[in-house]
Amino acid sequence: MAVTISAVLQATLIITVNMEFIIGSLGNAFIALVNIVDWVKRRKISLVDQILTALAISRTAFLFSLVTTLLVALLDPAAMTVRTVLKRHIISWMVSHHFSVWFATFLSIFYFLKIANFSNSIFITLKWKAKKVVLITLVVSLIIFFINIIVINILIDGPKVNTPYRYSSNNTVDVYVLILLTNTRFTLIPYTVTLITLLLLIFSLCRHLKSMRCNAKRFRDVSTAAHIKSLQSVATFLLLYTVFVMSLLLQTWNINFLENNLMVLFFWGTAIAFPSGHSCVLILGNSKLRQASLSVLWWLRCRYKYTEN
């Protein structure tokens, strides 16, 4: 019975990870494609569309890197003890992970500065210079990225082993623990920025909703619907991001999960939920992306009916 339950759980987690990967890949590829096509047509692209496109591309790379590493770890664990193989997987994962979380942070900063409403003079100044704020944050993220790369390279090349090409199993686990802990610490930086900006944005939206009670009913209904929709999108974004970070923290606290395939699948499925789920939230919350998705669904429906006839 225990073996049967374990097999069912493993199959369920594998299906979940596969579905998240498919949804995330298609969703992020769709976001990037729509914005790139619109850019080519109009010969210009807004800052928010630039951020969304870069975020979608980095998340697609992150998903493929994550799933590739997962497959190698599960199907050929011995390969992960080879220094060059381990280094290649870790670097590709770290690079795509870094930019995916930081572009998500840029998006939260942009939404905060454009949507929130505070009378503070510092906020007003930052609001008028939203593009500069995002660019400065980008420079800071690149500095952190190079520091992260240096630290990761030191950790990978640091352990002394019998041969220069292969780790022992113990060394592999030790290196993985150190790298996971390091990346989690670096991830806490953009997460903290995102947490602060989105909580302030939620506070601003809630305060504005409360103040609209004094306005005319017709105006209040339209504005309230828009603000509630914004609140739902922001809250979902923050929830998914928090679950993602908590998943990383739990892995660093319980490294024994590496010995259990079910725990590996669970943690990795939780990690994939953020870039996959948020792509759906972005499509539903953006009028251009939502309209494009409806057009695609209508076209697919027509094609299906045509093939049936």
UniProtKB/TrEMBL annotation:
Membrane-protein topology: Multi-pass membrane protein
InterPro entries named among the record's database cross-references: TAS2R
Swiss-Prot/TrEMBL keywords: G-protein coupled receptor, Membrane, Receptor, Sensory transduction, Taste, Transducer, Transmembrane, Transmembrane helix
Family: Belongs to the G-protein coupled receptor T2R family.
Pfam families: TAS2R
Record protein name field: Taste receptor type 2
Transmembrane found in the keyword field: yes
Membrane-traversing stretches: 21-40, 52-75, 90-113, 133-156, 188-209, 230-250, 262-284
Species of provenance: Microtus ochrogaster
Keyword Transmembrane: yes
Signal peptide (residue range): none
Subcellular location: Membrane
Gene: LOC101996952
